[in-house]
């Protein structure tokens, strides 16, 4: 089971935090700092798995991550998940973000956090992998964008009409 998905930059600033188990905010921040401290010190020549991290919630967990440019994409899982499967899932998630944002960067994660969460929810739900097909993920995101945009445009029109005094 996937316990959490984290994206943070090289300085440890979180860009996405999603926990699939109930934890208080202080514990989440502690976990984020601990993972950043473990991963940021590792050279790129080492593997992308960190095992035996019992500090995360008193059970054996595995940290699986990929480092892309200035961002770390981290999945925290239990020991039953396949390391290579999760690495492939990280690749699918990043490629999905690339398709949605046309070459995703850290600013996209900051300013479009709602879309990032939506893409993640298409890939992982309740700690389980839901979809890995890139075409299906991007189709679902594009369809959701089409449904959201008309609502935003009508709200903008209503605000403009209110300003002019027509409503």
Question: Can you give a write-up of this model?
Answer:
With 167 residues, the chain is α+β, with helices and mostly antiparallel strands. 50% of the residues lie in helices and 22% in strands. The chain has five helices and seven strands. A five-stranded antiparallel beta sheet has the order 2-1-5-4-3, with helices on both faces. Strand 4 and strand 5 form a beta hairpin.
Q: What features would you highlight for this structure?
A:
five-stranded antiparallel beta sheet, 5 helices, 167 residues, alpha+beta
List the helices and strands and how they pair.
Blueprint: E1 2-9, E2 14-19, H1 25-40, E3 49-50, E4 61-68, E5 71-78, H2 83-101, H3 106-111, H4 113-123, E6 124-125, E7 128-129, H5 134-164
Summarize the structure.
This protein has helices at about 25-40, 85-100, 105-110, 115-125, 135-165, and strands spanning about 1-10, 15-20, 50, 60-70, 70-80, 125, 130. The protein is an alpha+beta fold and about 170 residues long.
């Amino acid at each position: 089971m996937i316990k959490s998905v984290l994206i943070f930059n090289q300085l440890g600033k979180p860009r996405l935090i999603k926990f699939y188990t109930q934890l208080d905010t202080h514990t989440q921040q502690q976990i984020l700092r601990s993972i950043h401290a473990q991963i940021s010190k590792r050279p790129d020549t080492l593997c992308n798995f960190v095992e035996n991290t019992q500090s995360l919630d008193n059970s054996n967990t595995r940290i699986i991550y990929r480092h892309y440019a200035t961002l770390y994409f981290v999945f925290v899982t239990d020991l039953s998940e396949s390391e290579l499967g999760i690495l492939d899932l990280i690749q699918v998630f990043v490629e999905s973000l690339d398709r949605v944002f046309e070459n995703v960067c850290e600013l996209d994660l900051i300013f479009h956090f709602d879309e990032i969460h939506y893409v993640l929810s298409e890939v992982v739900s309740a700690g389980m992998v839901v979809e890995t097909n890139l075409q299906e993920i991007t189709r679902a995101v594009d369809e959701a964008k089409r449904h959201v945009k008309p609502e935003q445009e009508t709200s903008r029109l209503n605000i403009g009409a209110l300003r002019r005094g027509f409503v």
